[in-house]
Amino acid sequence: MTIDHSPSFAIWITGLPASGKSTIVSALKPLLEGLGLTVEVLESDEVRRVITPIPTYSEAERDLFYRALAFTGQRLVAHGVTVVFDATASHRAYRDFARSAIPRFIEVSVECPLATCMERDRKGTYRKGQQGESLTVPGLQSPYEAPINPDLRINSTTTPSGDAARRICDLVKAKFL
Question: Is the whole model's pTM more than 0.85, yes or no?
Fold first, then answer.
């Protein structure tokens, strides 16, 4: 059991690739900083370049990556930093592990139809999956386990990113501030 005396907390923004997570996080970070919080965004692609610079996206590698990501977030929170995880984390177990390590935790589900995610995909993730260059794209060849009971659901096809960020900020104020 983790005992945390820090007023800090973590927010995990999860959803399919290209669902709008990073756009929401970009709008959320300044709102949280405006509340006087020190905020660190742990964006999966950025962190992955350090932990697994030549990723295979195998199950074992994903397990290692998300455990390391959760551990990093837990240590930052323990030292007074508010953490925003910007990561698909396609298995619930990854997010549940983080929740078990970080008592003050919010899970936000960014919901968007796969077809819309594929249209929005600027990184080419789905194209690579369709062309066989990647065999583990969440929602395409690999399952994405959406949260069963997230603290907040955001439909990114109907909710502008600024509104989504304000909804998350309102939840933070209600739960932690």
Answer: yes
Residue 50: domain span: 10-176
Which alpha helices (H) appear in the chain, and where do they start and end? 21-34, 44-51, 59-78, 92-101, 114-120, 125-130, 161-176
Give me the phi and psi of 99, to 5 degrees please. -60, -40
41 Cβ partners below 8 Å, 6+ apart?
Answer: 25, 29, 83, 84, 86
Residue-level pLDDT at 6: 56
Measured CA distances, 90 to 58, 59, 76, 170 (Å): 12, 11, 23, 26
What's residue 17's pLDDT?
Answer: 97
Is residue 144 included in any domain, yes or no? Answer: yes
